[in-house]
Every structure is written in C-alpha cells, then in structure tokens.
C-alpha cells in the first residue's frame, strides 16, 4: 500500500490525515485548534504531535500540505501567514522532508482546495474551474486544462482583491470596493455593525440587534445570515451586497477566463438561498450572453484542503 | 520550402500574406479595405482575389486565419461579425480547405494577435501573457503555459466587458461601466461629444472643438488624443478616464491570473505618454503588492493578426 500523509495548516485550525493512494476514505484523521497567540513554532509542534499520533511508526510515501497563506509552490517555502506570526520564509517542504525522509509538496489553501474539489469533490470531470472560498477572507484557486494554474509568481486566484466598486468602502489592502471588502464574513459583520451604530433603535435591524442583545461587538457574518433568514430587512440588504460583489467578480472572471465551472465553499456560502440567488443572477448579468458557466457549492466542506493535499502528493507520485 | 498562407479578416480591412516556415519576412503581402456595405460574400470574394494574386498557382502547406469576431476555433466556424453582415455560422475552415485543398486553422483576432506577439513580437520568451487590443472595441487573448488559452467555450479574454465602474455609463452590451465603454476609441469620442454638447462654448475643450470646427460629429478618439497632447484639459480628463478603466481592468486580471506580461496594442494605445502613465499607475495600485507584472506596447502593429495566423499554421504543421 502507498500511504499518503495530508496536512492542513489553517489560520485557526490544524489537521492531519492518512489515506492509501486511490482510496477515498481516511485511514486516520486528527484535528486541533491553534492556541491563542499561536506562532509558527507552536503550530509546527502541534502538527508534529498529530503526525506522530497518526503514523505510529509507519512511514508515508509522500506528504501533501495545504497552507493558509501565500506559498512559493516551486520551493515549498511559506511566504507568510496573515493569521499566525513567525511564518515568514519558513521552508516548510524542506523541514518536512528532512524530518520524515519522504518527498513533501506544499501549496496555499485555495489552490489545494481547488485541486481537492477537482479530483474528489464537486469538480470531478471538469477540465477548467475556479474554486472560491468565501469565509474570513475571499480567495480562489484555478484548474485549467485539468491542472492547477498558479500564475507566473504563484499569486493567481486573488478574486478577493479585484475591485468591483471603486466608490465602495476601503479594504484592508488599501483599495476601495474589493470583493473581499464587500463579501467576506468579518466585513459583512462590520458593515452591519456600522449601519446599526448609526441607526436609532427602530425597526430596521431589530432582529439582528436582538440576536446580540444590542452588543454590536458580538455581531458575526453568521448572525447576519440568521437575522436575514428570520426576515430582518437590514441583514438581508447587507447580505445582498455581499452576493452582488461576488456575483460581479464571478461574471468578470467568466468573461476573462471562461472556465466551465465555479465552485463556492466557505462559511459565507451557507448564508441561505437568497444569497445564492442574487449571486447567480448578478454573475449571469455581468457575463456576456455567449459565456456559459455553472456555479455550484463545494462538496468537501472543511476537508477540501486535506483532500487537495492528497491530490498534490498523488500527482507527484504519479510523475 | 514550406509555404504558409496567412489571412486576416478585419472589421474594415482584409489582408493576406505568404511566408516560408521559419522566416520572419513576408514573401508577398496584400491589403484592401472592405467596401462600404460589405458582407461575408464580398469579403470572401476580395480575399479570394488577394489569395490568387499572392499564390499565382503555387500551393501553400497550410493556411492560418485571423477573424475579427467570435469563432469556434475547434471547428473553425465563424459565429458572427459585429461589423460585417452575413458571417453567422460560416464554416470558414471548411470553405478554405475545400477550395485550396490544404489544412486551415481559424481563430478570433485577439487570440491570434496574442499568439503573433508571443511568437514573433513583444512577448517572445514569456510563458504567460495577456494581449489587449484597445481600438474600436477592447478585446484580449491569453497565452498560458506557452500556449493559447481560449476558455471552455472559446470566449476567454473579454476584458472589454468586465465591469470596473458599476455606476458608470451604459455599454452596448447592456451593463454599466465596462472597460470597453470607458476605454475604447469610439466611446472616448462619444464621451467627449456628450460633454462638449452640454458645455457652453468656453475654455474647457476649446482645442478639441477647434479640431472639428465645432462639428462634434467629426470627433474621433484620435482627435481627443491630439487635443490632449496640445493641452486641452477636457480631452486630457476624458483620456485619463479611459486609462483609469483599463488600468483597473489590468490590475484585476493580474490579481486573478497573475501572468508575467501584458501587451497592449490598437489605436488607443497611441494616445500618448500620459495615457500610459495613468494606466500603469492604476494597474499597479489595483494589483496586490505581491503580484508582479510588466505592461508593454505591442511590437507587430497592424500585422499582429497576420503573424499570429502564421504561428497558428506553424503549430499545426509541427504536430
């Protein structure tokens, strides 16, 4: 049996699993939250303990790794993490290869999740697709001609930072009206917070206010979705802006690259049917009539990066 | 010697040339304007006469064709022309193969020009690039991994119809604030016309007005560029909006696909250094800091589609 070790260094979670090549069932699976004030060293220590617990002395044939931040996939070196300190220029591939004595392959989570959905999830049988995760951030990963397209500098897929409304609010990246600024979970919460803070305590947003008992600091993207589902007008309006921004982004991508399929994953995609309806309608209106595409939900959920890590290792073994 | 016949069906011009494989000099070259009220049949008749005049009884090994409109590159069937009537579903590849008894390869002008610049022009030595033509319309063609990327339905590259200003003016395609609506030659002229029509006959736009002796119908994109170069404030402002729109588009494309290079051709790219400066600055501001790219002018000018047609035929011969 050819054993693959799959690792997922997320922003807040660490996961590791083993699988036999060709199988679609984990042999073993471990997941931990990063501690508060995690840094690269604590993350690596926790991952080591997960790995040793999984392997128990056996040796994998290859290691595939999903990392939650920019990575040089050629060298397997992490550029940085936006969530965890100390990851600057860590040669993750080399570290793992030295420690476990087998080849390791590292790429960023959006690229790896795209690969996972393509090989094992919603993208099976499609030759070209764009996977988008809409969660704390908004990122994407390409499959073109059946293979990952990472871009000349490994930076392709940054749909979160394309501008869809130059008159929109300022994003963390410094620009106005990025998709991420309008569509991500934390910004949905922030937008709701700002509107509620300015409104007198009256009808619009009443349900939303109730969910946090007027403590606006407690607002999250998920609560905005819940309030919208319960009929809160203000929450619905804010969610629709999120769906609109992502819909324009997707329509623009369709015109530019014309993939067969868009796969959407991440917590915000659970915002309800109305969010999906607006998104699909705006994407369709933004794309040219002659440009065909489908938009579907991801199938692998939180395990997409781990399954993508398996695919990354399988690719390498097959070479 | 292996002889290639290259054809260019433009919106207003028809061109044909012959070249030996491996050579970068035309053996023979012919160019004609389409007549007023041209249709597919008159275009085909003129092209036939150009071809016979070029070949004089000799037979090419293959024919490469650039067509100014959407094409199904797999079958070589023209979908339509936005400029010339009667091109709907014309099987151009089959027609040429039946008539000349050699293989023919047909693709749309933006894809073919991208290939031409990649093989023989400004894109030599680059593995990934996006060619953009900014002229009557705004279109683009991809080279990824050293090969054309046409999209799942052959529609990739439509940067002209990505939305960069949702509050902008309405485009022919029905959306607001498309790149083409803000950046193309005819729309630059239209924008100038509209502003001048509303302004009293005073200083702003005075130079521009003078160039057409107050007959606003005579305004063209080129005249707006000339007025801007001569110091006309209004013309400069309108041109900067064009450069801004294209700059946002290019920055968005850089974030999404991360090609090494953008090559810009077409009449509007002759609008002067200020247009280029604004465009490059806005593109740089729109792209993420980590995303590197170059923006350079096309090298082959009006012959890019013809040289691309040569590359298309060479590709096929090499297979």
TrEMBL record, chains A, B:
SUPFAM superfamilies: Actin-like ATPase domain (SSF53067). Pfam families: ROK. Signal peptide: none annotated. InterPro entries: ATPase_NBD, ROK. It comes from the Bacteria. Gene3D superfamilies: 3.30.420.40. Belongs to the ROK (NagC/XylR) family. PANTHER family: N-ACETYLMANNOSAMINE KINASE (PTHR18964:SF169), ROK (REPRESSOR, ORF, KINASE) FAMILY (PTHR18964). This is ROK family protein.
């Amino acid at each position: 049996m050819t054993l693959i070790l799959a690792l997922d260094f997320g922003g807040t979670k660490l996961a590791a699993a083993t699988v036999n090549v060709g199988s679609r069932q984990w042999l073993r699976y471990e997941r931990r939250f990063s501690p508060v004030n995690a840094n690269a060293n604590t993350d690596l220590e926790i991952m080591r303990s997960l790995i040793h617990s999984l392997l128990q002395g056996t040796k994998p044939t290859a290691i595939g790794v999903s990392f939650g931040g920019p990575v040089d996939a050629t060298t397997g070196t992490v550029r940085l993490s936006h969530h965890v300190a100390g990851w600057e220029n860590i040669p993750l591939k080399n570290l793992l290869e030295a420690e476990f004595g087998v080849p390791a392959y590292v790429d960023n989570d959006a690229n790896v999740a795209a690969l996972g959905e393509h090989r094992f999830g919603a993208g099976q049988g499609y030759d070209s697709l764009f996977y988008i995760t809409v969660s704390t951030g908004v990122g994407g990963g390409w499959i073109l001609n059946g293979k990952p397209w990472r871009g000349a500098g490994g930076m392709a897929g940054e749909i979160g930072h394309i501008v869809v409304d130059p008159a929109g609010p300022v994003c963390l990246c410094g620009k106005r009206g990025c998709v991420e600024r309008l569509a991500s979970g934390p910004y949905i919460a922030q937008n709701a917070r700002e509107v509620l803070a300015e409104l007198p305590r009256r009808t619009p947003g009443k349900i939303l206010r109730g969910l946090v008992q007027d403590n606006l600091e407690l607002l999250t993207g998920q609560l905005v979705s819940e309030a919208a589902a319960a009929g809160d007008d203000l929450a619905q309006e804010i969610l629709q802006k999120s769906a609109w921004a992502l819909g324009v982004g997707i329509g623009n991508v369709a015109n530019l690259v014309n993939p067969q399929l868009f796969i959407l994953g991440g917590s915000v995609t659970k915002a309800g049917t109305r969010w999906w309806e607006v998104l699909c309608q705006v994407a369709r209106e933004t794309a040219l009539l002659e440009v065909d595409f489908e938009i579907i939900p991801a199938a692998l959920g939180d395990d997409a990066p781990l399954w993508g890590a398996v695919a990354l290792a399988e690719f390498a073994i097959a070479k």
